[in-house]
Design a protein that fits this description.
By secondary structure, this protein is of the alpha+beta class. It has helices spanning 3-14, 42-58, 72-82; strands at residues 18-24, 27-33, 64-70. A three-stranded mixed β-sheet has the order 1-2-3. Helix 1 packs across helix 2 (42-58). The radius of gyration is 12 Å and the shape is globular. 21% of the residues are buried.
């Protein structure tokens, strides 16, 4: 599965403002940014992102996924620590 397919799947399902997906084989790293994460714990944010991916995880297309999910405000604060300058 291409990274842009994962991005589209998540954006369509969760109305995210920003999605960054990196892949190494069938291991994926996802950074998701959206208002839908407001007020949620880290675990609940991750569960929200896992939802749209469950079909591809259960069929083995995605073997592993690392998720970092932020509200837009959190992302403004955290992006400088996560993205290379």
């Amino acid at each position: 599965m291409e990274t842009n397919q994962v991005e589209t799947l998540l954006k369509d399902a969760l109305s995210l403002q920003e999605v960054i997906v990196k892949a190494n084989g069938n291991h994926y790293e996802v950074i998701a940014v959206g208002e839908c994460f407001d007020g949620l714990s880290r675990v609940k944010k991750q569960q929200l992102v896992y939802g749209p991916l469950m079909g591809t995880i259960s069929d083995g297309t995605i073997h592993a996924v690392s998720i970092k999910a932020f509200t837009p405000t959190e992302w403004q604060r955290e992006r400088k620590f996560i993205l290379p300058q």
